[in-house]
Specification:
mainly alpha
Amino acid sequence: MIQQKSLNQLLCAATVNGRFREMLLRDPAKAIATGYFEHSFCLTPEERDLVVGIQAGKLEDFAAQVYCWMSGNGNGNGNGHNGHNGYNGYNGRNGNGLNGHTSRQELLPSLTAVS
């Protein structure tokens, strides 16, 4: 069972729709507020903070940061990305690994299956 259903839905929407994907990468807060067609995303405050704080140029980098956070049971204690210290592991802080992309390979098959 996916605990972070809305995060998964957000990533799925970005995978299948280029316009939504670009909005999510450029302005995550606007993407969340706008929703995807008739669907709105019911993110927890922690999930919203995570998504709004991500800075990524490509969806796979965005998804890798989300996956890393989710792998820490959605509490920000995942492996992290970008190697920054502090702030509960959001957006890769408390990261370990080269630019935090240690878990990217595990996420890509699930994104490929969606597209």
